[in-house]
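Technical note accompanying the year-one report. For the benefit of new consortium partners, we illustrate the data format agreed upon in the data management plan: each record pairs a sequence with a structure-token string. No post-processing was applied to the example shown here.
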Amino acid sequence: MEGNVEKAKGKDENKKVCNPVINKLKKKKKKKLEKQKKLEKQKKLEKQKKLEKQKKLEKKKKLEKKKKKLEKKNEIYSDKSDSDKNDELIVNFDLLDPDDIYKDNIRILLKNSELYNNLKCFEKLIHIICEQQNIGKVVCISNGNGNGNGNKNGDENNLISFATIINLNQYNELISLKDMFINKIEKINKNIEFEEDRKQIKTLFEKKNLNIGLLISNRIINCPIHVIPLIHKNIDEDIIWSQNIEDMDKNEKQFYFYDYILFYTKAYKNINNPDQIIFYNFEEEHFFKHKLYYLMWNNNNIKKFYEIENEKNKETNYKEFIIFFIITYSKYQQVSEQLQNLISTS
């Protein structure tokens, strides 16, 4: 009997005592914690939205400033050629900022450049060329309106040239582009003539605090020569404009203060006269005169040129070379100015 009493007593002790007041307090505390968590989550979302809104506003401001700059200038360039004294052909060109609508045309032009043959991040590069709102120009045959709205008037189908400068240290998506150049420097057959230049170029590439801009450009074969200096002039103006935007993020702005400009192109040497070099684009010869360092290697192609000798066409074979050279940004500015004077007096 006593055992049963003790057993019953033990059961009673194990029973939980339900106190309505304590339960109410617990529920209240739980509710308060849930509310607090909800508020914190809401604040976090609001903060995130605010940051996104701020980024959008910054981008919008940037675009508006660029638009005002373009509207202020809104230059239309003409190329005139006289067939005779009575007939005159006038063609107008619009100089515009790169945009997504030009992506297909830029892709076609870039595929014909030397850069395309070695590039792994080709599509990413095209995207950056078109999305970069600061530096770069496309040349389109004007539809006659001259209002700079290529996207509204079908000018994207009339693109004849583009050019931009991309900082090799700016975009994570283009790391393979810089790696490609470093690999080229290391893998080129050792040549005593270029050994010192090779070392110097490699040293420049390894310095992360230097801003090396890669000039990327191409054009159709019959692009008028008069628009080329204007492209370089406008690219330089874009760079200066980017350096002076007050409300631009410092992390982005630092990349527009270029120390050097890098050229990666083709050149041709006469088989019978190796000292004679013809550059793929005429202006590259003028920039090359101010090179700090350069590398050059034969890519085993032969190009036929036709020369006039004794009033007759003569076929001449030229070896094709890849040429890689660096100039200072100040020299890029200087030559861009000189090109204008050179073309205007020719």
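Partners are asked to follow this layout when depositing records. The two ends are 126 Å apart (CA to CA).
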